[in-house]
Amino acid sequence: MIGYHACPPPRLLNGSNRSVEETGESMAQTPQVQEEKLFIHNLVKRDPLAGLAEDVRRGLTTQPKRFLPKYFYDELGSQLFEAICLLPEYYLTRAENEILQRYADEIVSTVAGPTTLIEMGSGSASKTRLLIEALLRKQAELLFMPVDISATALENSSRILLQSYPRLNIEAYAADYFAALAELANEQRTHTLALFLGSNISNFDVDEALKFLRALRLVLNEGDALLLGADLKKDKAVLEAAYNDALGVTAAFNLNVLARINRELGGNFDLRAFAHRAVYNEEAGRVEIYIESCCEQTVSIRKLDLQVQFGEGEQIHTENSYKYDLEDIGKLAAQTGFTRAQTWQDQKQQFSSNLLLAV
Ligand SMILES: C[S@@+](CC[C@H](N)C(=O)[O-])C[C@H]1O[C@@H](n2cnc3c(N)ncnc32)[C@H](O)[C@@H]1O
């Protein structure tokens, strides 16, 4: 059996100790792993619809309409993101992978002594394997602590990792970043390397990024490190193509939020009456992602007892993806209790992996 509740109890924050099976999410085709190697803290609310329902109501009744990007990642959304990572236009994953392939040993050597690995928004944790392997070259065992809002992605990736690495133990958090960070800040660890890969930080505006980095800093001791993957400012055409691929996978990922509302909240969005839009706002330094109504229409959401009017061309803002230069990252670090000690880039200099040391 695999543990699912808080360990040691009671450490749940407004959460339940229900397993992924109990939340009804799919467990199909995940490998069996050895007893006691995997522990999942499920901090997702007892009523998993509550947060989604509140946020969708708020987002559709304000002007301009907007959703939070964390709602992209239901089971289908997480898989669509994996498909995005394989697209020729989506250079981010390949560039970060290239950096980690080349520098993983150097990166892990920056934290002294036996190290615990924490990852925020770990997803499939495919790139993380390179860092896990580097750490296992330097120490006998490794505790990996992934955090992800998608319980299915978290469990599937954890099981697959445990099959690959017999010297690995996993203590995972199915949780929003901030709920997990509040839990992790109460624990004592020796040395920690934290990861925030994939330019996940790009979804935050500056204030949110500062809040996130400060919360993460509280989890770390002086001398611990955060490896922060951050996508870099570049040509508008390259950026817009990355979020508007020819195959339409990013469009499906974006529109899946509407499908999710239909599935989980009893909505009647007609997905064919909405379109995906991705635009680089050069002044704000971010790619803005929208869902645009193709006509005047009314949508009802049964479980919210809500009717929403859309004008033709009206947009729902679903995501921002901020692009950085290295100076921005140094400033974020300096304001949050870190110093940017080192930065590695891919050969085309499209992406940056930044080692922020906790000071
Ligand atoms: C862009 S994907 C990146 C996945 C992986 N780190 C990578 O580099 O390929 C973002 C990941 O963060 C998770 N995520 C998004 N918002 C989150 C939140 N507020 N709290 C916890 N996890 C979140 C998603 O479920 C998803 O797995």
List the helices and strands and how they pair.
Layout: E1 38-42, H1 49-61, E2 65-66, H2 75-84, H3 91-108, E3 115-120, H4 128-138, E4 142-148, H5 151-164, E5 168-174, H6 177-184, E6 191-196, H7 206-217, E7 225-231, H8 236-242, H9 249-265, E8 274-281, E9 286-293, E10 297-301, E11 306-310, E12 315-322, H10 326-334, E13 338-345, E14 351-358
Parallel strand pairs: 1-5, 2-12, 3-4, 3-6, 4-5, 6-7
Antiparallel strand pairs: 7-14, 8-9, 9-12, 10-11, 13-14
This protein binds S-adenosylmethionine.
S-adenosylmethionine binds at residues 70, 73, 78, 81, 93, 121-123, 127, 147-150, 153, 176-177, 197-198, 200.
Name the strands of the widest sheet in spatial order. 1-5-4-3-6-7-14-13
| Overall spatial form | globular
Helix content: 25-40%
Strand content: 25-35%
Briefly note the structural class of the backbone: alpha/beta
Number of helices: 10
Detail the poorly predicted runs. Answer: 5-28
**Strand runs, count:** 14
How many strands, what sense, and barrel or not for the largest sheet?
A: 8 strands, mixed
Q: How much is the average pLDDT? A: 91
- Helix-strand sequence: EHEHHEHEHEHEHEHHEEEEEHEE
Bound molecules: S-adenosylmethionine
Report the span from N to C terminus: 40 Å
Radius of gyration: 20 Å
